[in-house]
Amino acid sequence: SYQRFANCYRCFYKLQPEVTRSIYDQFIAQLQTSIKEEIQEVKDEGNLEVLFNSLDKIVEEAKNQEEPACGIPEEDVRSSLVPYLLKHRAYLRKILREKEEENRKVAESVLAGRDRIAELQRLIQARKRAWQ
To answer: How far apart (Å, rounded) are the C-alpha atoms in residues 122 and 132?
Structure first.
């Protein structure tokens, strides 16, 4: 938005707001032109217009069909997704086991550190009593 643009160039906007607006308008115009050119270039390179027309034709022909052309969509998706999801679940379980083992080792380390601190505190107290 223009307001965001003006906020980015606040000092310049305060000095010359009309010039800032002009720069913004030119920037937007050039950006729109550039985007349109890029889209047209992609359409031309990929022969997309012909492909879109053929896709429209297929969609129109499919409207008259009662049954899906490739089977039941839910089953088709399920048959391709289930193996992937099972594999991913196995991977996540492996990572979970590794993290749990890591956490167990860290917890042991923390407990050992606490024991060491407690031992040092007892030693300090004993030496303090002996000194007194």
So the answer is: 15
Whole domain around residue 115: which residue ranges?
86-131
The mean per-residue pLDDT over the stretch 30-58 comes to 86
Pairwise pLDDT comparison (64 vs 5), residue with the higher score: 5
* Radius of gyration of the CA atoms of the chain, in A: 34
- The count of domains in the chain is 2
Give, for 47, the enclosing helix (H) or strand (E). Answer: none
Residues 43 and 49: beta-carbon distance below 8 Å: yes
pLDDT at 16 over 80: yes
Q: Is residue 73 part of a domain?
A: no
Dist CA 14 CA 68 (whole Å): 62
Reported residue count of the chain is: 132
Q: What backbone torsions phi and psi does residue 69 show, to the nearest 5 degrees?
A: -70, -25
Could you tell me if residue 15 is inside a domain?
yes
Q: CB under 8 Å to 5, separation ≥6 — which residues? A: 20, 24, 27
Q: What is the pTM of this model?
A: 0.38
